[in-house]
Amino acid sequence: MASDDQRERILSEAVKLLATAGPSGLSTRAVAAAAGVQTPTLYRLFADKDGLLDAVVTFGFESYLAEKHALEPSEDPVEDLRHGWEMHVAFGLANPAIYTLMYGTVRPGKQPAAAAENRAILCGMLERANAQGRLRVPVEAAAVAIEASTTGAVLHLLAQPEEARDIEVIRPLGDLVLDALIDQPAPGSSPIADRAQALLGIVTPTKDADPVTEAGFSVFEAGLLREWLARLNEASR
Q1: Whole-prediction pTM value?
Q2: b/e string for 87-117 if b means 16 or more Cβ within 10 A?
Q3: Are 104 and 155 in contact (CB under 8 A)?
């Protein structure tokens, strides 16, 4: 359809203009002229400048997601998280204007569907790490920490002169954040055995109290629970 072609052309020119002139140069008149359409046509398709900016932000997230979808998950979700952190930073440094629009001008309550999909991909990686017993905090808390570290790091670099935007400067931050969120398993260890052993340590009675019977279980049930945990620990190893 002609209107679809016009919309794509306007959006394409808006992205180009944003990259060369920055947000201040992204006027509806300039975009319309670059796309070869009348300004009323732009307003008909995008309603107003805010609608155009929302479409550009959605385009940015969809471009970033295209890279993420092309990434095949490995057997190690933690390595996938490290790769994802680097991919995010690299995208921001390669697309400074659109990244700043995506993350530096956020309007609460207004988030494109692609942004929610991006969060879902991150949470999926974290869920896999959690299933392996390697996540130290809840998935949601880990997602917030990773998003804050990546976004803050990129926006900090983009505030520097272009020649000073060195990814090596912020790479240690990614390692620090992920190391704080993730348990590194000992060689030959099993996540199931590690969790069983940790729980066994919690429910083992002391000379003064038994945490399991104090929680309302019988002595028989408490003993059975500890026996199962011990057997699970040994079997998993």
Answers
A1: 0.70
A2: bbbebbbebbbbbbbbbeeeeeeebbebbee
A3: yes
Say if CB 134 and CB 75 are below 8 A apart: no
Of 151, 123, 141, which is closest to residue 180 (Cα–Cα)? 141
Distance CA 145, CA 116 (A): 16
Cβ-based neighbour number of residue 57 at 10 Å? 22
Q: Using one digit for the tens of pLDDT, what is the confidence trace for 27-82?
A: 899 999 999 999 999 999 998 888 888 888 888 888 888 888 877 888 889 999 99
- Amino acid identity, residue 230? A
Asked if residues 119 and 143 have their Cβ atoms less than 8 Å apart, the reply is yes
Report which residue type is found at 150: T
User: Ramachandran region of residue 188, left (φ > 0), alpha (ψ -120 to 50) or beta?
Assistant: left
Tokens of 206: 């002391």
CA dist., res. 13 & res. 5, Å (int): 12
User: Distance between CA atoms of 60 and 15, rounded to whole angstroms?
Assistant: 9
